[in-house]
Amino acid sequence: MITESLLKIDELHFSYGGARILRGVSLELLKGDVVCIIGPNGAGKTTMLRTVTGLEKPTSGEILFNGTRVDHLSPRKILRAGISLIPEQGRLFPDMSVFENLMMGAYLRKDKKNIKKDLDLVYRYFPKLGARARQRAGSLSGGERQMAAVGRALMSGPKLLLMDEPSSGLSPQLVSMVGQMILEINRDGMSVLLVEQNADMALNVSRYGYALEQGRITLEGKAKELISHPMVKKTYLGI
Predict the structure, then answer these.
(1) Which burial class, exposed, middle or buried, applies to 195 when counting CB atoms under 10 A from its CB (0-12, 13-18, 19+)?
(2) Buried b vs exposed e over 148-180: b needs ≥16 C-beta within 10 Å?
(3) Can you tell me whether residue 210 is helix, strand or coil?
(4) Are 213 and 197 in contact (CB under 8 A)?
(5) What integer best gives the mean pLDDT of the chain?
(6) 142: region left, alpha or beta (phi > 0 left; psi from -120 to 50 alpha)
(7) What is the Cα–Cα distance from 83 to 113, expressed in whole angstroms?
(8) Is 22 helix (H, G, I), strand (E, B) or coil?
(9) Is pLDDT at 62 greater than 90 in this prediction?
(10) Which residues are CB-contacts of 141 (< 8 A; sequence separation ≥ 6)?
(11) What CA–CA distance (Å, rounded) separates 44 from 52?
């Protein structure tokens, strides 16, 4: 049973240009867990991920990773600690090869032997990337770009993957593929914090979920219970 906390966010506030974006967000993710945050555009989901990775500094509140505060650390140090962000739509380097994009994920690492092992693991997860290793990343399909973005994040050797809208712009078939990808990575022990507008996919691959609206957590609970909650069904599932 999962019991040990990996990420804990406590009363997180963030303001930008006088606008309050996050208003006392608190959440927890346990080691080996998949947790999702659902919510509409403009709810503050991406901003919250950016504070966890150090790209934005919170106005107040605490972020603890493995029991240590990280909200004052630089993005580089947070990446070294084991938190890796997969941005929306992957944001690959289109003129670089798939292999070069993957290796960019390992640029802070010195352990060449383990880098090779992780590259082999990425190719095991995503055989298409191995077949297209020398191909320009800009020529990949939408699903393949998402695979490459996840592979690049895995190459950093993370303990926690933050995924920002991984299903954005994908067909229903590819959305299902992304869900299966998350489940497979998690089965191998990877912890995942998933931010999604696609509540159906997110709740079906997660153990626990939060709804974020206008910078506040408005609902939380076990994912299998949230998916049948009247508010979630009406607001996010269109039922």
Answers:
(1) buried
(2) bbbbbbbbbbbbbbbbbbbbbebeeebbebbbe
(3) strand
(4) no
(5) 92
(6) alpha
(7) 21
(8) strand
(9) yes
(10) none
(11) 13
Place of tokens 């067909």: 171
pLDDT tens-digit profile of 185-208? 999 999 999 999 899 999 999 999
d(CA 109, CA 103): 10
Q: Measured between alpha carbons, how far is 192 from 195 in angstroms, rounded to an integer? A: 10
Residue 60 has pLDDT above 60, yes or no: yes
Retrieve residue 53's tokens. 């990775």
* 1-82+159-239 has CATH 3.40.50.300 classification: yes
Place of tokens 């299903």: 167
Q: Any idea where the domains of the chain sit in the sequence?
A: 1-82+159-239, 92-156
Give residue-wise pLDDT tens across range 139-159. Answer: 998 888 988 999 999 999 999
Adjacent-strand bridge partners of 60 = 13
For every residue of 137-166, DSSP letters joined together read GGGS-HHHHHHHHHHHHHTT--SEEEEE-T
Q: DSSP of 43-67, one letter per residue?
A: SSHHHHHHHHTTSS--SEEEEEETT
The DSSP bridge partners found for residue 188 are: none
Instruction: Determine the Cα angle at 7 with ends 232 and 46, to 5°.
Output: 55
Q: Where residue 91 falls among pLDDT bands split at 50, 70, 90? A: confident
**What is the mean predicted confidence (pLDDT) over 80-100?**
90
Helix (H) or strand (E) holding 114: helix 112-125
